[in-house]
Design goal:
single chain; alpha/beta; Rossmann fold; four-stranded antiparallel sheet; binds adenosine-5'-triphosphate; Cytochrome c biogenesis heme-transporting ATPase CcmA
């Protein structure tokens, strides 16, 4: 499928600073795009634009050939966005968070206990998330990736706080998603340790 996700002439201004301008971007099914850049370069701002959570100062973003604004509901159903923050309900347990996502995003049934076990959270399923470590909270947050059917994933620093084993597990999950014709945009400060044949990188320059 061509024209899966395309951005044309994007500009983003924050606090009178031009983070980027005239930025073009294209993503096809099966592709992984890694956005790189120094702290403050505008990576999260770009991801938020691409997720439809904020509006560019100039340019447009098309999903399957149509502007995001005319298909907000379809785009939301096609997207799994996980931001900088974990996005979990800290008062709820891991099991309750999964039940919440399943209801909110109308996800099909799957075995939550087994999923959490495979993410190294066995025995912690019923602990309120506020009592979990940073890496464990991140694992709960990323559990969404094993549940969602959305073809487009936009992930802001998903490896933060994860140990090596969890990083490898997450990259295996990327492979499966890409093999199933999914697409991923990710920001990371470190190089991906596994080989991704479809990987492209984009560097955002820090501008004063
Ligand atoms: N909503 C906002 N209002 C005002 N300024 C903002 C807003 N969002 C981001 N900024 C500013 O835009 C700049 C880029 O922020 P952004 O979070 O996109 O950078 P980043 O490349 O993701 O950085 P990091 O690697 O530190 O996560 C920063 O200087 C930040 O202060």
């Amino acid at each position: 499928m061509t024209d899966f996700l395309r951005a044309r002439g994007l500009s983003c201004i924050r606090q009178d600073r031009v983070l980027f301008q005239a930025l073009d971007l294209e993503l096809s099914p099966g592709q992984l795009l890694q956005i790189q850049g120094k702290n403050g370069a505008g990576k999260s701002s770009l991801l938020r634009l691409l997720a439809g959570l904020s509006t560019p100062d100039d340019g447009e973003i098309l999903f399957q050939g149509q502007p995001l604004a005319v298909q907000a509901e379809h785009y939301a159903a096609s997207l799994c966005y996980i931001g900088h923050h974990s996005g979990i309900h800290e008062q709820l347990t891991a099991m309750e968070n999964i039940a919440f996502w399943r209801a909110a995003y109308q996800l099909p049934y799957s075995d939550s206990m087994q999923l959490l076990g495979s993410l190294g959270l066995a025995g912690l399923e019923d602990v309120p998330c506020r009592m979990l470590s940073a890496g464990q909270q991140r694992r709960v947050s990323l559990a969404r990736l094993w549940l969602t059917k959305a073809p487009l994933w936009i992930l802001d620093e998903p490896f933060t706080a994860l140990d090596q084993q969890a990083i490898q597990r997450l990259q295996q999950c990327f492979h499966q998603h890409l093999a199933a014709e999914g697409a991923i945009i990710v920001t990371t400060h470190q190089a991906l340790s596994q080989d991704f044949p479809s990987l492209r990188t984009m560097e955002l320059a820090y501008r004063w």
